[in-house]
Amino acid sequence: EGQTKQGLSIRPQQLWWHHTAGAAKALGLGGVIGNLQPGCEADFVVLNPTATPLLARKTAQANSLDELLFAMIVLGDDRLIDRTVIARG
Questions:
Q1: d(Cα 75, Cα 6) in Å, to the nearest integer?
Q2: N or C: which end of the chain has fewer CB within 10 A?
Q3: Of 10, 24, 29, the residue nearest 69 (C-alpha)
């Protein structure tokens, strides 16, 4: 945690962006999907950072958004998902 190798690692916030708004931008759909801004379409999951005792302990100790996201990325499993919200079209 906190150690990176130049050119091999990205920060958890960057990883999260690549899988949401970054993917939408790459598909030419930025501003339509990939974020929760008003007017955008969205199917998304609600995450529970206290889903397991270990996850709860690590996320409670997080001092930054990167540390919180890192804990959820590394320690999260299907129990991390609290619910799924699907847009009705």
A1: 24
A2: C
A3: 10
Distance of CA 6 to the CA centre of its chain: 22
- Any residues with CB less than 8 A from the CB of 20 and at least 6 apart, and which? 34, 35
pLDDT the model gives residue 37: 87
Write down the pLDDT at residue 42: 86
Q: Rounded to an integer, what distance in angstroms lies between the CA atom of residue 75 and that of residue 55?
A: 6
Q: What is the mean pLDDT of each run of 10 residues along the chain (89 residues)?
A: 66 91 94 88 92 96 95 94 86
Structure tokens of 88? 């009705």
